[in-house]
Amino acid sequence: MDFNDSPEEATYRAKARAWLEAHARRRTDGGARGMAVADGSNLGEAKAWQALKADAGYAGITIQAPYGAGGTPIEAVIYRQEEGQFEVPFGVYEIGLGMAIPTVIAHGSDAHRDRYVRKALRGEEIWCQLFSEPAGGSDLAALRTKGVRDGDDWLVTGQKVWTSGAHYADYGILLVRTDPSRPKHKGLTMFIVDMKAPGVEVRPIRTMAGSAEFNEVFFDNVRIPDSDRLGEAGNGWNVAISTLMTERMQAGMGFGFVSAHDVLRLARRYGQDDALITQRVADFWINDQALKLLSYRAQTSLSQGGFPGPEQAVNKAIEAAQGQQAAYFCMDLLGAEGALAAAEVGEHWAGVETSWMWASAMRIAGGSDEILRNIIAERVLGLPGDPRPDRNTPFNELKH
Ligand SMILES: Cc1cc2nc3c(=O)[nH]c(=O)nc-3n(C[C@H](O)[C@H](O)[C@H](O)COP(=O)(O)OP(=O)(O)OC[C@H]3O[C@@H](n4cnc5c(N)ncnc54)[C@H](O)[C@@H]3O)c2cc1C
Fold first, then answer.
1. pTM over cut 0.70
2. CA 281, CA 293: separation in Å to the nearest integer?
């Protein structure tokens, strides 16, 4: 198997790298570059960088012309790999451009595409994804936020949770139950919601890392015009699945954790003469190589015009676990210094500190470990499915 770029891919990589060299500073620390979710403290910088990328054709690489660059998924992967080597703001636009805008393009009208896509690509408007609820996380179709038709509008009431970036988002894609008399997957509808509309209240959730990247979002009779519906009323589950497919395309492409290189660097500094440490470093290195091969498989499939299948779940499950173990191991290597904040030890270890705090979240976001194992069992190995007794019962007859 040939893992090298094709001649076209190599040309694209060289062009992207040259553009990045001209417009950004190459990273020298080699450490984690931050998490997939941003707290919004770098909004000004992120907006400026996004506008620059849009002018150069690197925003929305896979989004079709005339809105985006109309490139291929493998070009998006190549650009992401190259950008990862540079000091650039990260985490503000990933959900909007990676999930919300592709959903608007696929299921919205021409008027939606004209109104929203360019502004999102240029970074002028930021989007969030309002799916998860206290009662609807892994089992998303159990969500309870309700939408009731009122003339040309819908009135939405309920609560979302873990909504990344809602506190700085301008718009969101919102999944709502509009027909409780139908089984749980059938009575859902997707909308575009204006996050500044009356009745929308965003309450940031502060994490143990001290920052607030995600939120609770409350809806109190929020009026959404029917013209801002994405897809047919009652077809929201299929719209949501298409959003989650684009999420899967992004998964396994790195979480910004400490890398095997970071582990090696730290081990050289703190644990050179310890045979047990050397053995653990070797384990990380070997796992890292295996992960690289797994992601090459996904890349090969993208490069040949296909899409990574459910086997991508294997990649995500292993990568999230390896990232967490690497972060914990790095913290152990730092010894007593590991107990201090990066501000005291030196900013160059900030990545280790952030990764240590955030590693567990990455075992939940984008599919928890257990859900990924279910996917692998059912769709890769062909084992019998989880029992799903509530599948065909009208939602309002289920016990809550
Ligand atoms: C960093 C981060 C960012 C996020 N951003 C967003 C966002 O922007 N928008 C959004 O809508 N959501 C977001 N989420 C929410 C995320 O999608 C949910 O946390 C996830 O789907 C899990 O749902 P839950 O938290 O309700 O856990 P639950 O579904 O309640 O799961 C609890 C535990 O039970 C296990 N479990 C559940 N069902 C099964 C089963 N059938 N078999 C075996 N075990 C099971 C789970 O694996 C888990 O360990 C984010 C989450 C994180 C961590």
1. yes
2. 19
